[in-house]
Amino acid sequence: MKPTLLIPAAGMGSRYGGLKQMDGMGPSGETLMDYSVYDAIRAGFGKVVFIIRHDFEQEFKNIFNTKRFGGRIEVDYAFQSIENIPAGITTNPKRTKPWGAGHALLMAANLIHEPFAVINSDDFYGYESFKIISEHLHACDPVANEYCMAGFQLKNTLSETGGVSRAICNINKNHELATIYECHQIVKNNSEITGIDEADNNVFLHGNTIVSMNIWGFTPAFMQHSIELFYDFLSRNNMDLKAEFHIPYIVGELIGSGKATVHAYETTARWFGVTWPQDRDAVVESLKLKVLNGEYPENLWAV
Predict the structure, then answer these.
(1) CA-wise closest residue to 159 among 132, 124, 131, 130
(2) Domain harbouring 260, CATH code
């Protein structure tokens, strides 16, 4: 059975100033998600599920439909809403922001019956990353709690235009993820890379530090674990206007409790993506260069 690619794409793009997941940046108007789907097909994925919001459903489907991909991969949709939470929990009525990528995954739970990968909608990962995840998912026991991740070197994931958030990973001698935590406002100043950890402490980071860029491989059992953790998360953060249920948080809880293991496959690939509006020009140039180098066709979906 071919694995599924799950793409949470319901983000509001507040820092970017718009729906960056639908911004055409490739030579023929391709979005970053187009390149991810293209690489996933080459790596052996059989289905893609987009998780979106109803308020831009038609606009999204006008772009990302089965015809766009030329029948190369099955396409389905799930919908994220801040109101879609466990019964009996009251949340802050002033909240308008979705509950994060971890919550988005749960919207697709009834569509997932096979091992699956999860990525961000606004990141470029490259074929190597999808191949790593696909090989693991094709070989894994579909009922086990043995997951995987592609780990990037921090120095290959920084933005030239502003601070970024990254999940810092500690990998053990068995090449498994031992701990993971979020670090924010990571920037490079001359030869130093600094950030702010979860306790609001300023920290210095090494360029070779392995980070998660939210490209994960899971089995369906991950969904049930996430449902249980989301209930606990909401019980503690239901009135918070900004709290988000992040995938690294879920993974960290499962590792810490011994309920799952995560195989960490390191890659030297260079990430790029759009966090800030100023990132767009660099992404456009990077994609153009990859086309010129023959890594991708000028029009991904030309027949």
Answers:
(1) 124
(2) 3.90.550.10
Q: What is the pLDDT of residue 198?
A: 87
Asked if the structure places residue 273 within a domain, the reply is yes
Residue with tokens 């971890």, as numbered in its chain: 102
Which range marks the domain in which residue 176 is found? 4-292
Each residue's pLDDT tens digit, 18-53: 567 788 899 999 999 999 999 999 999 999 999 999
CA distance readout (Å), 150 to 201, 241, 262: 27, 31, 10
Q: Confidence band (pLDDT; 50, 70, 90) for 88?
A: confident
Q: Which long-range contacts (CB under 8 A, 24 or more apart) does 245-249 make?
A: 245/99, 245/100, 245/101, 245/102, 245/103, 246/100, 246/101, 246/102, 246/167, 246/182, 247/101, 247/102, 247/105, 247/118, 247/214, 247/216, 248/167, 248/180, 248/181, 248/182, 248/212, 248/214, 249/102, 249/182
In terms of Cα–Cα distance, which of 164, 213, 215 is closest to 16? 164
Instruction: Enumerate residues 6+ apart whose C-beta is below 8 A from 223.
Output: 105, 106, 109, 112
Query: Quick count: other Cβ atoms within 10 Å of Cβ 156?
Result: 16
The overall pTM is greater than 0.90: yes
Model confidence at 186: pLDDT above 60: yes
What tokens appear for 268 in the block?
């030297």
For residue 179, CA distances in Å to 171, 255, 261 come to: 7, 7, 11
Domain count, the chain: 1
Residue with tokens 């909240």: 95
Taking only the tens place, the pLDDT of each residue in 146-180 is 999 999 999 999 988 888 999 999 999 999 999 99
Q: Is residue 300 part of a domain?
A: no
Q: Nearest 5°: CA angle at 202, between 199 and 158? A: 105
